[in-house]
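Folded chain entry —
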Amino acid sequence: MVAEAPRWKEVLPHIVGFVGTDTLVAHNAAFDTGVIRYACAADGIQWPAFDFLCTLVAARKALALPSYRLPYVAVSLGFSLENHHDAHADASAVVKIVNKLAQRENATDLQDLAQKIGVCLGTMSLGKYSGSVAQGSSSRGFTPVSVNADADPAGYLFGRVVVFTGTLQSMTRDTARQECARVGAIPEENTTKRTNVLVVGDIDPSVLRPGSNLTGKTRKAFELQDKGQQIEVMTEDDFLRCLGGTQLDGVEIILASQQETCSSTTSLITTVTDLRTSDSLRSKSDQPVVPKPPKPLRRTPIPTEQKCSITTCDATAAFKTRTNPTWCAEHIVAIQFQGGLRALEEFTHPNDWQLTECLDCHVQAHYRFNYTLEKNGENEPTCRACYWRQWADRNRLEQGSWAEITPVPFLDAKSISEDHGYTYLGPLTEPSLADDPHQVKCNHCGKISAERLSDIAFGCTCTPRV
C-alpha cells in the first residue's frame, strides 16, 4: 500500500501542519507514538511535538470490561466496530469512544475528560517523552519479585543484575521486572556496582550525543563503565530479544537504515555505549579493546531420563527441560523435516546452532531448533535462502517497472561481506539482484547463514559492538 509513497520525513510536516495544536487520541497510544518516534529515527529527523490521550488507558479507568481491545470497548459503549484494523475505521471508533466517555463524565474537552477519569495526557517533544497513563499509579509500586531458579542457565540474562531507565513501550516497568525474574535475571532499582545490564527506554537517536541530558541511571552506568565495570547498555528491542532467547554479545545498534543512500541518517544512529555526557567521562585508556571470544554455537548435550512429549512415544527425550515440551531424536528429525531441513550435525539443545541443509534448495546454514519450531507454527520455511528468494521475487513483481533489476557484482557482494566480518561463500541466485540472498560465514563464531546484503551490513549478532 505504501510502496510508492513518499518517505516519512516528507510526509511528517504535512501531518504536523494538519494536527497543529490539537491533542492526538489513539487506542494504545504508546504503540502509535512509538511508531512515530522510530520512524523519525530511521529518517534521521527529530520527533515532532504532540500531546496525546490514550483511550486504552482511559477505558481501563472508566469501564469494567473483560477485555479492553478496541472492538470490546466500542460494543460496551453502544456501537460496533466494523473492519477492525482499517486505519479510518479504527480512528472513527476512537472518536466515538472519546465522545461517549465525555458524555458519561460530562466533560467539556479532552483535558477535562482526562482529569475526571484519572488519566494524564501524554506529551512528546524533542528527545522527551511522557506517556498517557493513569494518575496515581506509581512505577515504584512493584509486585514482589521471585527469581526463577529453574530458568535456563544458558539464557543471556540469567544471573545478571538488570536495571531499567526511561519509559518502556512494550510493557510496564513492573512487568519487565517480572520478565527478568522469569528468565533468571535479578531486577534492581538503581545502577550500582552490582549492575550488569542497563535497559534504556524511549531513546531518540537524533538527540543522543556528547552533552545530552541523559538520565541519572544512564550517566552512572557510563561512569562505572569508564572505571572498568562490565555494564551492558541495551535498548528495549534488545531486551525483548533476550527475553525471547536471542543471544547478544554486545550492544546492538539502536536503529539503522537498510538503504545505502541513508548514510547521513546512519551517522546519527550510534551505539549507546559510545555516548558520553562530558569529556570527563571518556575512557582513560587508549589501549585497543580486544573483542571477547564468541559463545560456542553448540554445547555438550545433557543426558536426561525424561520421555518425549509426544503422548504416543515412549522414547527418551533428546534434551532436558522443566516446563517446555521436549522430543526424542526421531521426532526432532520429523519436526525439522516439516520445516524443510535435514540436520548435518548431531542435535544438542533447542537454542544451539545446528548445521543443516535445505531439502528444497540444498543450501547449508546454521539454525536453532527453536527457530524451526517458530517458523513451523507460522507455516513458513526455516530456510532463509528460500524465504528471501521468494520475498525478493514478490517484491520485484509488486514494484513492476520501478523494481531494481541491475545484477549485484560479485566483487561488491564479497567486499561488503568481508568489511562486516564475514567470509563470502557466494550468491544464492543467478543472476543475483537487489534483496536476493547470499551465503556467508561469520569469521568470529563460524556460523553459516543466508542473508541479504542489507542484513550482512549489520554484521553477525555474535560480534561485539565496540
